[in-house]
Amino acid sequence: MVAKQLEKHKGLEQRTCGLVYVPAAQSPHKTEPPTADEHRIAMLNIALQSVDRDWSIWTQELADGTLNPGAPSYWADTWAIANALLPDSMNRFLIGADQAMSMHRWHRYQEFWEDATVMMRDGIGDTDELIEGLDRLGVWTQDDLKHWRTCCVPVEMVPWSSSEIRQQLCRTDQQKNTRIEGLDPGVQSYILEHGLYR
């Protein structure tokens, strides 16, 4: 799990920070609405029970989404609220390399991109590949690229994607005893019980 991997990274040790999970309301980059809020929160709670560090689920975006249903939620707004609530903290948010590559398309990304921590596959070659890819975009200055490099955290990635797990869920709908690798057993039971991701 990511929470355990991050304990190895300087500045992100368990004693210095907790993890806050922020379910998005409606991504501006996706056309389909997400799974119902109550299900996503329930599954997060189940999956995080075994994490041995401070964690919480912050539903700011979901609450804002109920005020303007269907409207996209922007990380710039959520991050501004987080920093206003915790002005004296070293606030960071976690993204994958794919999100780093698309960061320049995020709404008002200039306001927050420097606060990102990029979770990378364990190995220096992968970080070099990311920096080279960011450079090819022609968006980032050399100083920006140096900062991106300092934000990369090597973690042991799981060999399963969410798309693959959803495909397996469709196949195991009639076989509730079939264990899906990469999916928390409690979350799997919850998904099958509520008929999600069909």
How would you describe this structure to a colleague?
The protein is mainly alpha-helical. 42% of the residues lie in helices and 10% in strands. The protein contains nine helices and five strands. The chain has helices at residues 2-6, 37-47, 60-67, 75-85, 97-101, 124-137, 142-150, 162-171, 185-194; strands at 19-21, 55-57, 93-96, 116-121, 152-155. Strands 3-4-5 form a three-stranded parallel β-sheet. α2 packs antiparallel against α9 (185-194) and α6 (124-137) packs antiparallel against α7. It starts with a helix and ends with a helix. The mean pLDDT is 83.
The total domain count is: 2
Please work out how many helical segments DSSP would assign: 9
From the spread of the alpha carbons, the general shape counts as: globular
Strand content: 5-15%
Topology, pairings included?
Elements: H1 2-6, E1 19-21, H2 37-47, E2 55-57, H3 60-67, H4 75-85, E3 93-96, H5 97-101, E4 116-121, H6 124-137, H7 142-150, E5 152-155, H8 162-171, H9 185-194
Helix pairs in contact: 2-9, 6-7
Please supply descriptive tags for the structure shown above.
2 domains; 198 residues; Rossmann fold; 5 strands; 3-stranded parallel sheet; globular
Summarize the structure.
The chain has 198 residues and is mainly α. The protein has helices spanning 2-6, 37-47, 60-67, 75-85, 97-101, 124-137, 142-150, 162-171, 185-194; strands spanning 19-21, 55-57, 93-96, 116-121, 152-155.
